Amino acid sequence: MMMMRYFHLALLSTLLFIKLTLILGDVGTATSYGPPYIPTACDGNRREQFPAGNMFVAVNEGLWDNGAACGRRYKIRCLSGDNRPCKGDIIEVKVVDLCHRTPCPTMLLSTIAFSAISRFSNAKINIEYAEI
């Protein structure tokens, strides 16, 4: 009986740890942006800069860090938005560009990345993100 309690405690702790990994992240906003994706501020016209699966983002000035953001990877999840757009998944993305919109959300997600976490392609969503 005591072993079963320890097993349940260990299982619960593991599940909580997995769910809490992004709670230490920052909160921001995101929208989708579509092609053309090149040239980018990171690697110009090089198509090799885009990760497999096209899970990438452009970031705002606050995250850009004078270009040091190029190549950084983030975990992102949708928190909320109008009409409950969130799918509940956590995605991993790579920074390939600086956002040139005014005003710019925290991140502009490629259409593929955005559709992985939002049910609506034209939504503005609240996100939680953490560098990995």
TrEMBL record:
Pfam families xref list: DPBB_1
Keywords assigned by UniProt, alphabetized: Signal
The keyword Signal is annotated on this UniProt entry: yes
Top-level taxon: Eukaryota
Residues of the Expansin-like EG45 domain: 28-132
InterPro entries xref list: Expansin/allergen_DPBB_dom, RlpA-like_DPBB, RlpA-like_sf
Signal peptide span: 1-25
Protein name as it appears in the record: EG45-like domain containing protein
